[in-house]
Amino acid sequence: MIDYRPMMLKTLSTSVSALLLSLATPVLADSDPLTEADCRAPVELMQSSFAGSDEGVSVTFEALEDGVCIYRDLVMKTGQPYGSSVVASRIRIEGDGLRWAAAYLKALALPDPEARNHALTGITLMPERLKLQVTGMRQVLYTDDSYFDYALEAQSRMSMATLVLDIGWDQAAKELQLHQAGIEMPHGNMVRVSGVVKDVDLSSLATMQMSLSGFAVTELDAEIRSYGLFQAYALPMLAMAVIVREEEQAPELQMEMALKQALAAVDQLPAESVPDESKLALRNLISDLPDLWGVLKLNFRADPGFGPVRLGRFALMGPPEGIEDVLPLFQGVRLDVDWQQETAPWKVEGCVTLQC
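That's the DUF2066 domain-containing protein sequence above. Prediction below.
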């Protein structure tokens, strides 16, 4: 049986964008609170947009509570004979960022170029905050076999996740503030990220396009709790990047060689950017591969910020060929790493569950 789990991250990464697109609402003044009509509008839009189609997004409006639009029974279908749907039990959306995003997405959806450009240039909304919470989210795989699909749908309930996004924009400072972005999954698996991105101007389409080439990440904090998360999602991608099928060497030997090269690269990282404690944590992390089972914490600071300007040299000179080419990127950078490896269940004698 094919393992579809590596597909889930890609599917989930597009889910938020699709959700916001489906929640396009009429443009109102920033000070106007969301009304029940605003919350119902996206449901009606989706019903008309995907009528008679096997693919699309459907969701049911439930209530408006304290300015928060609450929905249930989200289904995102691809319409392919063999594919997957993203399903969620409940969604909460609040903040004027929804109205701002909806205004742009609704304008971009206009088929007539002249009308589209007119609508885009006429948007004057300034976003301050957007909060999104999706609970009971899971990926449901389906085939062309109704009996097998029944079992797959039931199995999907064992991997339900909760997605959280809280993002704000400081217009005066031109600063994007990622208060929290995270996903919680079964068995204690979790990814949580926060950070600050400077030189981001969301006041118009033109300034947003300029920001794409000038933004700079100055702060980034991440916590990853991996109790099977790495093996399910990251390991297949790592293996594909490292292991060459045509090589005569066994996959284990190819991976071992790649890890040795990674350890050597860690030793060459500048101490002023990556202190000895962090280097030790990175070495332990690499040495524990592929049996990562524990908690990883990252704290990144950059002055000036890290963004396209720093990477511009590679656009002119080509990709780095060695660690020496990468070292200039660490100027003004501080990276603190902490890795706490725990004993994986399969390494505990007599253990037959993931909770040993």
